[in-house]
Amino acid sequence: MSLIINKKIIALIGMMGVGKTTIGNKLANKLGYYFIDCDQEIEDFEHCSINDIFANKGEKYFREIEEKIIDEIVHRDEHMVLSLGGGAYVSEQTRKLLQHKAIVIWLHANIDELVIRTANKNNRPLLNKQIANQDLKTNYRNHNNFKNKRQVLQELTTQRLKFYQQCDFDFDTTNNNQEVIVNKIIQQLKKND
How many domains does the chain have? Predict the structure, then answer.
């Protein structure tokens, strides 16, 4: 597909579980762009998982590396769809950079949907940390854990909402399949071309 976009980068932001990676991959394929997952880039740079970075070096260190990696990625001279970690856009430095260099698209879904989508995922350090801090080191299917996961997701969403709203466009992924979302994004990009 040949679509001329005034910026080379399409950045996907939003909470864990909204579909940034899956939708980003599909969008990049349709546009003929590279797809870059920021968390994967961080893992490649650090030679360990995001969970291990959080556990061994802490969130502050992770956020510093995240800013550095995003800055490096954004300055590549490539057309790309960039999927950011859920907390990346909270950084003022990252937000300003992306607002200048990218089309920023916020993907969101309702909290109940996010709880379901993240239910069996153990690669969500902030979610796991919050639940572990509440002494709920039980199976994720446990009702109390499910309830607390919902609470943590709600709190993170509330904290990040004012940052996510500083986007160019937003799309609700709650009841739409990924192909529908990808097509809606492309239609929006065509309108603003």
Answer: 1
